[in-house]
Specification:
heterodimer, A: eight-stranded parallel beta sheet, globular, B: 11 helices, 9 strands
């Protein structure tokens, strides 16, 4: 079975190119990437892309699917449909479920659920410590055997440096990647906003942006000590960037991500206590946002994630301080990221380097590339079409998106996983 | 029935931030007339006759609640007090459900105090009556700022181009925020004085000058506003001890001597004598206007509820038509 995409604007993050061409797929894998002028090979099925963009499918690290425990917020089925509609071909799920994914048995359960229900690729992260309580490490070896691609306590910081350093040391011996949330936990306890004029005016409990740098500084010191393989889930402030850059220059095995919300929104979007804009860490100043966008451009920040966090209406219809953190973003990740493209801040190969290539590379997955031999996980999208987001049309079970009623530009036309169309508009 | 307000356009009184200076002046002018009414033996008016006022206090309060209750009763409203911290929250009801329940009883004025910033705002979106913020978290306490403004205006004869010092625990104070906004809108110079742990530097971005020395900060001010050192809000560790705080930041005769000779001393109450203010200064009838503040509180709340009720009536008439 061969499939030929013709007249596509091919976004190749590895080569850094954005040019018209054709793409031939056979048996679920890319066979060849052809130049615009090359002769068209014959194929069983031909899709004329009409000049629309074809890019490697998004690999989204840090998606919360609420199984086990809170399936009413998001299931593997609903998350899978939302991902497909958003051009996300691989979701890397978080272990901050109820209970946490901290044993091989729980991991096998979610793997089975994902295989049965999700039309896209699902790989799982496991907790780093039991119950994400920061006391004892999980069975890292067994969990790796059961398919865990990384270990993370998500937004809970392992406060005890001794526990964390031992977990890093052990993880290193297994070749496991540890993903951490750089944040000084005591300083940021109870914070609902970033300290500054806005938080002061609104009277919200706030944390200094410095808490992120302090957390990162500690983790970098522990990396120097242990040599472990480390990824910071979200870097969102300008003050943390020099430390990150230095650590990379010094040859530590460190990468960093950021969330689409911190790239496209700032603290002022909270306005009159709009709880759909409450995320963790809290939204930052405009200066921080622009510094983080620039860090993505320079490659200091490697990965953009949706940090998809479903919350039901009850968790959000509360006073701001009491409301739950997090936003759904699988379906809005690409349109929101395209804001950065339309604002001339990032080009398309850079965006897909951060959304597809880098996350795949960091986790040792084969996707994220437009090259012969790579799986045909692809997203076809119209970069220009405008629309107004209606949150009630989202496929997620939870509709807590900060982009509700906002104007967006660019959306997915079709998504392919291993050459199979899993979504078509 | 009274006329529609000239400038006041609000459906709720959620904070000082949304108010135009002319709206503030209209509230204060009307409050002046209620001060006169309150000083008579026959204190009844009928601006709120037939209306139902519910006071929902999710946080302890004696003075503010009594002031709102009296204001409502003097204007003829049916007033009901609900001590919320004792009731439904403990049973797990959410704020919005509580609001919807009360809304079904058709109140016209809802006076709300809540420990979380923005909670009153949220509640106002879910009910169809006028909501007055009686203090939300560390956000705003608009009627306190209005009564302070009225007190200053009556004592000083004007509410602009004054040097005003706000002293003490600014960080945890909604009173300070509302006052800062109001006095700023009316074009006064504002100084914030206190230890840096209680006066975060971000306040400078609102145009205030920040001092950590009382002697320096009080120099030539017209008004000294003291704030309560909110012990219940302290996580611990903001100041080394009460006695050091009193020594450095408590208002005594020596520090007050730096201010203008006719400077007035204010305090929103309840006072901690010997912590933030010396007892003799608080009682000095030539300097302290603390009792006047309490009196102005009732009048300002009458004025605010009167104006909100007028807008509520015309809104409902518009809906009916």
């Amino acid at each position: 079975m061969t499939l030929l995409f013709t007249n596509a604007r091919l976004i190749n993050p590895d080569a850094g190119t954005d040019a018209l061409g054709h793409l031939l797929v056979q048996d679920g894998a890319i066979v060849s990437v052809l130049d615009e002028k090359d002769a068209l090979p014959s194929a069983d099925r031909v899709i004329d892309c009409g000049g629309k963009c074809l890019a490697p499918g998004i690999v989204d690290i840090g998606v919360k699917v609420c199984e086990p425990g809170e399936r009413h917020k998001e299931s593997y089925k609903s998350a899978g449909l939302a991902a497909a509609a958003g051009g996300v071909t691989t979701i890397v799920t978080r272990p901050d479920t109820l209970p946490a994914i901290d044993t091989p048995e729980t991991l096998e359960f979610v793997t089975r659920r994902a295989q049965a229900d999700a039309p896209i690729n699902v790989v799982s992260m496991a907790a780093l410590t039991k119950g994400r309580e920061g006391r004892e490490m999980v069975e890292i070896g067994f969990m790796l055997d059961a398919g865990a691609v990384a270990f993370s306590d998500c937004d809970k910081v392992v406060q005890n440096a001794k526990v964390f350093s031992r977990a890093l040391t052990y993880a290193k011996s297994c070749g496991a990647l540890v993903i951490a949330h750089p944040q000084e936990p005591v300083l940021s306890a109870g914070a609902a906003a970033t300290s500054g004029k806005f938080a002061t005016l609104r009277g919200l409990p706030a944390v200094s942006p410095m808490a992120e740098r302090m957390g990162l500084d500690r983790d970098i010191a522990l990396l120097e000590m242990t040599g472990a393989k480390y990824h910071a889930d979200q870097i969102t402030t300008a003050r943390a960037l020099p430390a990150l850059e230095r650590a990379k220059k010094n040859g530590l095995d460190i990468t960093a991500g950021t969330s689409i919300h911190h790239l496209t929104l700032n603290e002022l979007d909270v306005a009159d206590y709009r709880t759909f804009f409450k995320v963790k860490p809290p939204l930052r100043s405009e200066e921080d946002r622009l510094a983080v966008v620039d860090a993505v451009r320079r490659g200091v920040i490697d990965i953009i994630s949706s940090m998809h966090t479903p919350q039901d209406e009850e968790s959000k219809r509360l006073p701001f301080e009491e409301a739950a953190s997090g936003a759904v973003a699988l379906e809005t990740l690409l349109p929101a990221a395209l804001r950065l493209y339309h604002a001339d801040l990032l080009d398309l190969p850079t965006l897909f380097r951060a959304m597809s290539l880098n996350p795949a590379k960091r986790l040792g997955l084969s996707g994220g590339r437009l090259e012969a031999g790579a799986p045909a996980d692809l997203v076809l999208f119209d970069v220009d079409v405008p629309f107004v987001l209606d949150r009630f049309k989202l496929r997620s079970k939870s509709q807590n998106t900060p982009y509700d009623t906002q104007r967006m530009q660019g959306r997915v036309l079709a998504t392919f996983v291993a050459g199979e169309c899993v979504f078509e508009r | 029935m009274s006329d529609a307000p000239t400038y006041f356009r609000q459906n709720h009184l959620l904070g000082i931030e949304p108010l135009h200076p002319l709206e503030i002046t209209e509230i204060l002018d009307l409050a002046d007339s209620y001060v006169e009414l309150n000083r008579q033996t026959q204190k009844h008016a009928d601006a709120l006759a037939g209306l139902t006022q519910i006071n929902m206090f999710f946080e302890n309060s004696t003075r503010t609640q009594a002031s709102f209750e009296l204001a409502g009763k003097r204007l003829g409203a049916d007033v009901m007090n609900m001590a919320m911290q004792a009731s439904s929250i403990k049973k797990g009801e959410t704020l919005i459900d509580t609001a919807m329940t009360l809304n079904a009883m058709h109140p016209d004025l809802l006076v709300v105090r809540h420990p979380h910033s923005g909670a009153v705002d949220l509640l106002s979106q879910k009910v169809n009556c006028a909501v007055l913020n009686a203090g939300d978290g560390k956000h705003e306490h608009p009627t306190q700022a209005l009564l302070d403004a009225l007190t200053i205006r009556r004592a000083k004869g004007r509410l602009h181009r004054l040097n005003i010092a706000i002293c003490g625990d600014i960080a945890h104070s909604r009173v300070a925020r509302s006052n800062l906004i109001l006095l700023g809108k009316m074009e006064n110079r504002i100084r914030l004085i206190g230890p840096p742990t209680l006066v975060p530097g971000h306040f400078a971005e609102f145009g205030a000058e920040i001092y950590d020395d009382m002697h320096e900060g009080l120099k030539d001010v017209d008004v000294v506003m003291m704030l309560r050192l909110q012990k219940e809000r302290m996580d611990g560790g903001f100041i080394p001890s009460e006695r050091e705080y009193y020594h450095r930041f408590g208002l005594d005769a020596d520090k007050l001597a730096q201010a203008k000779p006719d400077a007035i001393v204010m305090h929103p109450g309840p006072m901690n004598r010997g912590v933030e203010i010396d007892g003799t200064i608080a009682d000095d009838i030539n300097r302290s206007v603390i009792q006047e503040q309490v009196e102005m509180g009732v009048a300002v709340r009458m004025a605010a509820m009167d104006l909100l009720a007028r807008n509520l009536r015309s809104r409902r008439q518009g809906e009916a038509a």
